[in-house]
Amino acid sequence: MNSTPALSSIDDVISLIRPSVRNEHAYVVGAPSHCEVKLNQNESPFDLPADLKEELAEAFTKIEANRYPDEQPTKLRNALAERDGVDPEGIIVGNGSNELTYTFGTAFIDPGTPVVMPRPMFSLYEKVARICGADLTPVAPSEDLSFDAGAIEKAVVETDAVMTVLTTPNNPTGLAMPMEEIEQIVSAANGVVVVDEAYVEFNPVGSATHLLEKYPNVVILRTLSKGMGLAGVRLGYMIARPELAHEVMKSRLPFMVDRFSEQIALSLLDREDLLAERVGLMKQATQKLIAALEEMPGVDVVPSDANFCIFRTDRDADALQADLADAGVLVRNMSGYPELPGYLRVSAGTEAENKAFLTALERSLRGADTA
């Protein structure tokens, strides 16, 4: 009687994992634990107000933890639809917008599917495309690091792309696309165009939701992590034509949004004045941060339409990041993007956090000049 030999080592087991997965790196934001000023992940510096936390603590006692949530959080979906002026049937709420990014991969990308993505852009999109086996066409930016709309349109047409992703304002550059450039690409595409609006609250250009009525291939992606300050709750959503959302739902895992997360979001959405005030403060803080960096000798900063900015100096980015961490300030090194050698990214924090960052940066640069 023949038997299949047992796997002889862990390497044999690991070899069973698809090569497209093994070739990737885990998405990990490594950071020292001793830093008190955390400006490396584009988060809101504002936690939920104490009185709202008290309300939520009371609400938590009424949640039936033994019961599954709905496949879609209906109350939250309706509240978001009313806020954005869209059809609730066209909204899918996810466990953060990152989860929906993977959903796009399973819904639209087979091995060999043509996908167009401008660079530099949030790296998770390219990672998902590669894991799914996409025929990926990256598009280089313009000299000022903005997306090259003409080159993107050309790539979309030439490859007959099934999916194109535009992030506006863009992470990591902070630059927003003009609305006419977004529509230029959407109108040329035979495939879906995902417009990631994670930083829409800060965007002077506004939202592309009005394109949904004219173009059936538009998909808008949003998050509650940035302007709304719910990064720790994990909520995001997509907006599309209801017919398209219905099909995309087929590729999703069920029960991705828990009851308590829905309640937190609903309670915060009831405080529009608070949200508007906080977004306004973050906008002001970002522009003050950029102005301060522009005044520093030897610092090159890129203008931003988000709640962060990127900058570079004559110093090695790794060394400068380490200096800032030693001073208790976390920033993000963007040098992993081929288009951003030497750049660091800093989020706008509270006034005290921004001052601590600027002080640490100035000291580090001054110390390097005298060394």
UniProtKB/TrEMBL annotation:
<dbReference type="InterPro" id="IPR050106">
    <property type="entry name" value="HistidinolP_aminotransfase"/>
</dbReference>
<dbReference type="InterPro" id="IPR015421">
    <property type="entry name" value="PyrdxlP-dep_Trfase_major"/>
</dbReference>
<comment type="similarity">
    <text>Belongs to the class-II pyridoxal-phosphate-dependent aminotransferase family. Histidinol-phosphate aminotransferase subfamily.</text>
</comment>
<dbReference type="InterPro" id="IPR004839">
    <property type="entry name" value="Aminotransferase_I/II_large"/>
</dbReference>
<comment type="subunit">
    <text>Homodimer.</text>
</comment>
<dbReference type="InterPro" id="IPR001917">
    <property type="entry name" value="Aminotrans_II_pyridoxalP_BS"/>
</dbReference>
<protein>
    <recommendedName>
        <fullName>Histidinol-phosphate aminotransferase</fullName>
        <ecNumber>2.6.1.9</ecNumber>
    </recommendedName>
</protein>
<dbReference type="InterPro" id="IPR015424">
    <property type="entry name" value="PyrdxlP-dep_Trfase"/>
</dbReference>
<keyword id="KW-0032">Aminotransferase</keyword>
<keyword id="KW-0368">Histidine biosynthesis</keyword>
<keyword id="KW-0808">Transferase</keyword>
<feature type="domain" description="Aminotransferase class I/classII large">
    <location>
        <begin position="37"/>
        <end position="361"/>
    </location>
</feature>
<dbReference type="InterPro" id="IPR015422">
    <property type="entry name" value="PyrdxlP-dep_Trfase_small"/>
</dbReference>
<dbReference type="GO" id="GO:0000105">
    <property type="term" value="P:L-histidine biosynthetic process"/>
</dbReference>
<dbReference type="GO" id="GO:0004400">
    <property type="term" value="F:histidinol-phosphate transaminase activity"/>
</dbReference>
<keyword id="KW-0028">Amino-acid biosynthesis</keyword>
<keyword id="KW-0663">Pyridoxal phosphate</keyword>
<dbReference type="InterPro" id="IPR005861">
    <property type="entry name" value="HisP_aminotrans"/>
</dbReference>
<dbReference type="Pfam" id="PF00155">
    <property type="entry name" value="Aminotran_1_2"/>
</dbReference>
<dbReference type="GO" id="GO:0030170">
    <property type="term" value="F:pyridoxal phosphate binding"/>
</dbReference>
<feature type="modified residue" description="N6-(pyridoxal phosphate)lysine">
    <location>
        <position position="226"/>
    </location>
</feature>
<comment type="pathway">
    <text>Amino-acid biosynthesis; L-histidine biosynthesis; L-histidine from 5-phospho-alpha-D-ribose 1-diphosphate: step 7/9.</text>
</comment>
